[in-house]
Design goal:
The complex is a heterodimer of chains A (317) and B (430). The longest helix of chain A is centred in the first third of the chain and has 17 residues, at 18-34. Chain A has 12 helices and 13 strands. With 317 residues, chain A is an alpha+beta fold. Chain A starts with 6 loop residues before the first strand and ends with a helix. Chain B has helices at 32-40, 60-78, 88-99, 115-127, 142-150, 167-179, 203-216, 254-258, 270-284, 289-301, 304-329, 355-364, 394-418; strands at residues 46-47, 110-113, 133-138, 154-161, 164-165, 186-189, 219-223, 247-252, 264-267, 335-336, 344-348, 367-368, 370-371, 384-388. In chain B, the strands form 3 sheets. Chain B has an 8-stranded mixed β-sheet with strand order 2-9-8-7-6-3-4-5, with helices on both faces. Chain B is built from 13 helices and 14 strands. Chain B has 2 domains: 23-52 and 307-422, Aspartate Aminotransferase, domain 1; 80-301, Aspartate Aminotransferase, domain 2 (3-Layer(aba) Sandwich). The longest helix of chain B has 26 residues, at 304-329. The chains are: A alpha+beta (317), B alpha/beta (430).
Chain lengths: 317, 430
């Protein structure tokens, strides 16, 4: 029987990923509830500090996606409160959430990552967008993939196949943030590799191969049940699967992540995994890849959440 | 399980029935816009998005007592099934309400529905086969477009101006459909305080519109949830008041009483009414008795005419706050409609600005609106946004528009940086 008295699952937030976060949060809460744990879902709003002070939880499971949930800010506050929480410390979150920073650290650790540029909106304004765009295409070539430097769920992200498409893609990206990460689009097999540490050190989970339908792995493909096919484990030769697992483990380790993470990779035709990004608060919805990988690896979802909370509680706030 | 083991041959698709859905369900997918609106509901955001009535203005204690007594005294009927046509007493009261818009009707011509949205669904169900043409204003109510799309109708938009539907444009649309060998099944129109455009069909155009439709043998579906919420003078004369056989009139208590009771109605010629009753039976068996009787009691025992006046005064103040803030704060190149009632202002953005692309930035600035694309079946309307002033207090409206103006200014700057061609989905107002 677990020694967890009361658990708070943090979900919601004000980012565009609010709906996804709520779905993740409810799924975690329901799994805990089913296991007999007193778990409540809470928003990170003006009532949070008062309620946490009044009834300090044994541990918190942060399931807020996007800014404030994944940039380390809410964990800083939990640290100030002295409340234990599942997942990475704020400084690691900050590095992981900022995709260009995560790419640089992963690259320095020997991982292959698509060549890219990171440019704030002001740069296009100050130097002239057309000239900057010409330079990007000349340097990186085509096709490209444009995404906000911070954020998830493919919001504001999309492929670019012609130079004429790039301005619209960058503008769409700037809807979700003021800095764009523009990287060379690598064609290949898209996989998500979870890493979980249940007390014995971080372990990679089976890679989940993502095969979206027409339109790519966009927001709709991610959160419409049935719109995307998943293969677990991914249909990769054993050596390539091992390389993908190793890449995810390396990313988790060099970024200083804790408890759980999910690394998104593209495996090219030669079998080389290319690091795209890492998520410190991976989606836990019914269409998310981490729960699929846990299940395939033989880990019960609820038991995994409880174990992570117990480890957090044992660490203390 | 370790990585690299023998792969599973069959993919996992989460939804095991994915290959079995009807064709009409193909478009029912998760959307970014819907996800963004999950944020709009938070109190930190000034929401000019959802078209919700200000039910806090109701005498909630009195309504609560009334519903309590209804269950205590009439529970045997209020908690029981009823007929698919709806409670007879309520239908009599509905005739009194419609008389305010010069409609003479008999209770037997009325079918009670779950909001007027269900009436829209039933009307479309009995008239529209896949591929049939339905005429609707440009822009048109998003809920109606959703119902038409669900039945695989082909929506043809008809141009409006500040006086509502343009008769000449309607004639042209009917003519074009005829030339293509298609006879539109009906014209869907919101003549008063249009959702989303905020305009009202001018009195001088009403008989002309009816005449055009009569000559073309075209049924008119008159959707009128806002008709009693005009800010100046008496309610407009309904289209149905001048053509009992050519118009199906849809009414609702959502805006004059409470959206949560979900009570609306259709007033239809006898043959159509019979089919609506049968369609309602198969859809819901019967409508919620408790809600119907609550509305009946409300109309019988509460000062509902005075309550409508209270709503009108509140919405007029908020309309004024909206228009004043727009006039003061909006950057050059924006224009907007000036509603004489209802809930909505239709904002047109400067060239090259797409309201849908701009929405996430607006939400980051903590203001929400509905992008215009939702009100066009063909995906155009990107230059427009619907602003709803019914719910926020006037000072919140001003703050929301201040935030919105700032967001638009940033968009203009980006348009100038990237060129108007970069804005996707921008189309001039038809």
């Amino acid at each position: 029987m677990s020694e967890l008295d009361r658990v708070v699952v943090l979900a919601g937030g004000l980012s565009p990923e609010r709906e996804v976060s709520l779905r993740s949060g409810y799924r975690v809460r329901d799994a805990l509830d089913e296991a007999g744990i007193d778990a409540v879902l809470a928003e990170a709003d003006s009532a949070l500090l008062t309620s946490m002070r009044a009834v300090p939880p044994s541990a918190v499971f942060p399931a807020i996606h996007g800014a404030s949930g994944e940039d380390g800010a809410i964990r800083e506050v939990l640290g100030l409160l002295g409340v234990p929480y599942v997942g990475s410390v704020p400084s690691a979150c900050q590095m992981a959430f900022d995709k260009p920073t995560a790419k640089a650290i992963a690259s320095a650790a020997g991982l292959v990552t698509p060549s890219s540029v990171t440019l704030p909106r002001e740069m296009f304004h100050d130097l002239g967008a057309a000239a900057v765009i010409d330079l990007i295409v000349a340097k990186l070539g085509l096709p490209l993939y444009v995404k906000p430097s911070r954020g998830g769920s493919a919001l504001g992200a999309g492929p670019v196949h012609t130079a004429a498409q790039l301005p619209a893609a960058v503008l769409s990206c700037f809807g979700y943030g003021d800095t764009a990460l523009i990287e060379r689009l690598v064609c290949g097999t898209e996989v998500a590799v979870g890493v979980v540490d249940l007390g014995g050190g971080p372990q990679p989970l089976p890679a989940v191969e993502i095969v979206p339908g027409e339109g790519g792995y966009d927001y709709s493909a991610r959160y419409t049940a049935g719109k995307t096919e998943f293969y677990v484990p991914a249909r990769l030769p054993a050596g390539v699967a091992a390389a993908a697992a190793s890449a995810a483990l390396t990313a988790h380790t060099v970024l200083g992540l804790r408890d759980l993470s999910r690394t998104d990779l593209i495996v090219d035709e030669a079998g080389t995994p290319h690091f795209l990004e890492v998520n410190i608060s991976p989606g836990m919805t019914e269409t998310s890849t981490l729960p699929l990988a846990l299940e395939t690896a033989g880990h019960d979802f609820g038991a995994t959440c409880i174990r992570l909370l117990e480890l957090a509680a044992a660490r203390g706030g | 399980m370790a990585y690299g083991q023998e792969p599973i041959a069959q993919p996992q698709r989460i939804d095991r029935y994915v290959g079995q859905y009807a064709e009409r369900a193909v478009g029912m997918v998760a959307s970014e816009i819907r996800a963004l609106f999950a944020v709009a509901a938070r109190p930190e955001i000034v929401s000019l998005a959802g078209g919700a009535p200000y039910v806090s203005a109701l005498p909630l204690d009195a309504v609560g007592d009334m519903i309590g007594q209804l269950v205590t005294r009439q529970g045997a009927s209020a908690l029981q099934y009823c007929t698919a046509q709806g409670d007879a007493g309520l239908r009599e009261r509905i005739c009194d309400v419609m008389a305010l818009e010069h409609i003479r009707a008999h209770p037997d011509e009325i079918v009670v529905t779950v909001g007027s949205q269900q009436a829209l669904d039933l009307i479309t169900r009995i008239f529209v086969d896949p591929g049939d043409v339905v005429l609707a204003e440009a822009p048109s109510y998003v809920g109606a477009l959703g119902a038409f799309t669900a039945y695989q109708a082909r929506v043809v938009h008809v141009t409006m101006d500040d006086d509502g539907l343009i008769p000449g444009a309607l004639e042209e649309a009917i003519g074009r459909a005829g030339a293509a060998g298609r006879r539109p099944k009906f014209l869907y129109t919101v003549p008063n305080f249009h959702n989303p455009a905020g305009v009202t069909l001018a009195a001088g155009r009403r008989l002309r519109i009816l005449d055009i439709c009569r000559r073309a043998g075209l049924l008119v579906v008159e959707d009128n949830p806002y008709g009693l919420l005009g800010f100046d003078g008496e309610p407009m004369r309904a289209l149905r008041a001048d053509d009992a056989e050519g118009v199906v009139y849809l009414g609702s208590f959502s805006k004059t009483f409470a959206g949560g009771v979900r009570v609306g109605w259709a007033l239809a010629p006898a043959a159509i009414r019979d089919k609506l009753v049968l369609a309602a039976e198969s859809a819901v068996l019967c409508h919620p008795s408790l809600s119907q009787l609550a509305v009946r009691e409300y109309l019988a025992t509460q000062p509902w005419r005075q309550q409508i006046k209270t709503f009108r005064d509140i919405y007029a103040e908020r309309r004024d706050a909206t228009l004043n803030a727009l006039a003061t704060m909006m950057p050059p190149g924006c224009r907007w409609t000036r509603p004489a009632g209802g809930f909505y202002v239709w904002l047109t953005l400067p060239d090259g600005i797409d309201a849908k692309v701009m929405l996430p930035r607006a939400l980051s600035s903590r203001v929400a609106y509905v992008p215009g694309t939702g009100f066009y079946a063909d995906g155009t309307g990107g230059r427009h946004a619907r602003l709803c002033y019914s719910l926020p207090e006037p000072d919140r409206i001003a703050e929301g528009i201040r935030r919105l103006a700032s967001v638009i200014e940033t968009e203009i700057e980006m348009r100038d940086d990237f060129g108007p061609a970069a804005g996707s989905g921008c189309a001039a107002r038809p």
